[in-house]
Design goal:
Structural class: alpha/beta
Radius of gyration: 21 Å
CATH superfamily of the largest domain: Type I PLP-dependent aspartate aminotransferase-like (Major domain)
CATH class of the largest domain: Alpha Beta
Number of strands: 12
CATH topology of the largest domain: Aspartate Aminotransferase, domain 2
Strand order of the largest sheet: 2-8-7-6-5-3-4
CATH architecture of the largest domain: 3-Layer(aba) Sandwich
């Protein structure tokens, strides 16, 4: 009898818990016997308006060339991103979603004995990448429960710290730190630490701190952005980083060849130019966010005021309410994996989706 091959795998990989994305519509329909057209997915912070029509047209045209490898340097996209952010092209890195950049940072800076610092209730990929590379993951408790405690994160830095992740706005909470707090933090970070400011949800924030200035000042920092949220391109996986030439060069060395596919590059480039669609997406979220917050306040329910396209709300027993809503064709996200078993996270969708979600929650919670 053959021995289980996992016996020979690295122990730090065996102990990992795989990242679990929001439940897909097709899977929900299969399992529960529901009509997929009647299911709404509000679990993965996707853009319910969809991608820009201009991006879709550009991607459709690009499909005819998929027999050829894409531009391995993502030249056209990176050139436009550099212009967009007023930096040099060598300060940009394109990737298959900002999650790939998190992994590349790990490959560049982490190894056994090195440390990663992140806040409580942070994006799960920070911990996964740290542990995958046998590095130490240091989780710093939040200030006032929901907000990054940047002073405590600064105090947690040791000579072995290589990466500090600041998620702003935060996932899965939706809170945010401001410009002065970030400035104070950056002014005291030692030179052996790279600060990764993850701004996947920054387009939805009314007030947006200037973090690109740290890059222009030559700090050891990388600002992470994605086209998956406000731009509606989650399905093609494209993100980018703005950083120093030295850090960018390291990440280019660590990435795989042709890491951003042809369709993704073309779609992102077109999406970036469609400012009207972006504005419409942000407006949809602003209106929906206000509806959820006003409704939860009227119901007397605890929620976290959000700067993102999702809202975190205390429903008493998150897993139970998630499952019962699922049976009604509404997919939300239970938060027990993040140490928040009383909560669910709800993506803010279209008016119709938001209304349906609140109808189901109201029924389940007796509101």
């Amino acid at each position: 009898m053959c021995q289980d091959i996992s016996f020979y795998a690295n122990s730090f990989v065996q102990s990992l818990v795989a990242y679990r994305p929001g439940k897909p519509i097709a899977e929900t329909a299969r399992e529960l016997g529901l009509n997929p057209e009647q299911i709404i997915k509000l679990a993965s912070n996707e853009n319910s308006l969809g991608a820009s029509p201009k991006a879709i047209e550009a991607m459709q045209r690009a499909v005819g060339g998929v027999h050829l490898y894409p531009d391995g340097a993502s030249y056209a996209l990176r050139k436009r991103l550099a212009e967009f952010h007023a930096v040099e092209m060598e300060q940009t890195v394109a990737a298959a979603g900002s999650s790939e950049l998190i992994e590349l940072l790990g490959h560049a800076f982490l190894s056994e004995g090195k440390e990663v610092i992140a806040a409580q209730y942070s994006f799960a990929m920070y911990s996964i990448v740290a542990r995958l590379l046998n590095a130490r993951y240091v989780e710093v408790p939040n200030r006032a429960r929901w907000i990054h405690d940047l002073e405590a994160m600064l105090a947690a830095i040791t000579p072995q710290t290589r990466l500090v992740f600041i998620t702003n706005p935060t996932n899965p909470v939706g809170s945010m730190v401001g410009q002065q707090e970030l400035d104070d933090f950056m002014n005291h970070v030692p030179s052996h630490v790279v600060v990764a400011i993850d701004e996947a949800y920054i387009d939805f924030a009314a007030e947006q701190p200037d973090t690109i200035k740290y890059v222009r000042e030559g700090r050891n920092v990388i600002v992470l952005r994605t086209f998956s949220k406000a731009y509606g391109l989650a399905g093609v996986r494209v993100g980018y980083g703005i950083t120093t030439p030295a850090i960018a060069e390291l990440l280019h060395k660590a990435r795989s060849p042709f890491n951003v596919n042809l369709v993704a590059q073309v779609g992102a480039l077109a999406a970036l130019e469609d400012r009207e669609h972006l504005a419409a997406s942000v407006h949809m979220v602003e209106v929906g966010r206000r509806l959820y917050e006003e409704t939860f306040a009227a119901w007397g329910m605890e929620y976290v005021p959000s700067h993102t396209n999702f809202i975190l709300v205390n429903v008493g027993c998150g897993r139970e309410i998630y499952q019962r809503a699922l049976e009604q064709g509404v997919i939300t996200r239970p938060m027990d994996a993040y140490g928040l078993p009383q909560y669910i996270r709800i993506t803010i969708g279209t008016e119709k989706e938001n209304t349906r979600c609140l109808e189901v929650l109201g029924m389940l919670l007796g509101k």
